[in-house]
Amino acid sequence: MRIELTEVHGVFNWVWDIPKNEDRLDESMADEDEDVCGICRASYHAPCPNCRYPGESCAIVLGRCGHNFHVHCISRWVDTPTSKGLCPMCRQKFQLLQRTKINEPHIPLFKEIEIKRYRQLQEEIEAGNYDALEEANIPPREDVEMASA
Ligand SMILES: [Zn+2]
Ligand SMILES: [Zn+2]
Ligand SMILES: [Zn+2]
Fold first, then answer.
1. C-alpha 39 to ligand 2 mean position (Å)
2. How far apart are the CA of 1 and the centre of ligand 1, in A?
3. A single GO BP annotation from the record (predicted)?
């Protein structure tokens, strides 16, 4: 018997290799939410609703709090003033998990958003809106020092 191969369909299964990391505040939370982006509710091994292909072009970021998101979803979220820079799942300040390869390419983007947020806050205070300071949920000084240590 001779078999002639006329067509080959490649089937690839893409998954992110998400490291276990003791720096995460609540690892159990990450397990519970399975592999779903907390914003668009799609699996983060698949692309976000605005992208067609998974992988580098629609990457994910790992939050220090234990929640993971598509970078497109979470960066848009933390960039809105109403988010106050908080994780939409647990309402802790959203910070990228440090020393994590997946997060590395996105550090500048999140720094930029943070700087923008502080600048907007400064404008509010200069305009006399002191409530903004409280609403902005700036972490207490010890937290800031711990984060930069
Ligand atoms: Zn998403
Ligand atoms: Zn995307
Ligand atoms: Zn969270």
1. 12
2. 50
3. protein ubiquitination
DSSP string, 30-88: HHHTTTB-TTT-SBTTSPPTT-SS-BTTB-EEEBTTS-EEEHHHHHHHHTSGGGTTB-T
What would be the CATH architecture of the domain defined by 58-134? 2-Layer Sandwich (3.30)
Residue 140: the pLDDT is: 53
Model pLDDT for residues 25-55, shown as the tens digit of each residue? 665 554 555 789 999 999 988 999 999 988 8
Q: Taking the domains of the chain in order of start, what are their residue ranges?
A: 58-134
Give the pTM. Answer: 0.73
Ligand 1 center to 85 CA (angstroms): 16
pLDDT of 53-96, one tens digit each?
888 899 999 999 999 999 999 999 999 988 989 999 999 999 99
Ligand nearest the Cα of residue 58 is: 2
Distances 77 to 37, 39, 80, 88 between C-alpha atoms, Å: 12, 8, 6, 8
Query: Residues with Cβ within 5 Å of ion ligand 2?
Result: 48, 51, 58, 72
